[in-house]
Amino acid sequence: MSSTLRAIPLYLEDLTPGMIIDAGPRTVTREEGVAFAQQFDPQPFHLDDAAAKNSLFDGLALSGWHTAALCMRMVVESPLGQIASGLVGIELRSLRWPTPARPGDTLRLKIEVLGTKPSRSRPGWGTGELRWVVRNQKDDIVMTMENTIWAACRPAL
After folding, report:
1. The CATH number of domain 12-152, selected from 3.40.50.720, 3.10.129.10, 1.10.455.10, 3.10.290.10
2. pLDDT of residue 157
3. Taking residues 75-95, what's their average pLDDT?
4. Residue 55, class by beta-carbon neighbours within 10 Å (0-12 exposed, 13-18 middle, 19+ buried)?
5. Which residues of 83-103 are buried (b: 16+ CB within 10 A; e: fewer)?
6. Which pTM value belongs to this model?
7. DSSP designation for 83
């Protein structure tokens, strides 16, 4: 099932279980990967080709945190970025990087709505359960995540 999200804004009621939201693609350059690593994850296998070649990764790998940040940008630029309350995360249940993303990779993201639930303690709000799957141009999974977001309910007329 592909997303057929309507015009802005989106509310909790618009997020239906099984809905798929596509985001991306986004190609990341070596320069972006190294710059991110220099600032936030300065490990040799993210910064230096020779050191990376002799590491577990057998070559330069993007920081997993960089992959996650790129995906967040793709989500904000996707139809899900039009959610009325903003993309407010409240829980991260799992985050995995089964294959490293690498400079030059083109990433694409599919977000599946697993379920929604109105809040019992906060009228007008609810939560959405999401699963993110990020693949590169070779169709390798480079990141998976399951999280919970806050979402505003549609205002009463």
Report:
1. 3.10.129.10
2. 72
3. 94
4. middle
5. bebebeeeeeeeeebebbbbb
6. 0.91
7. B
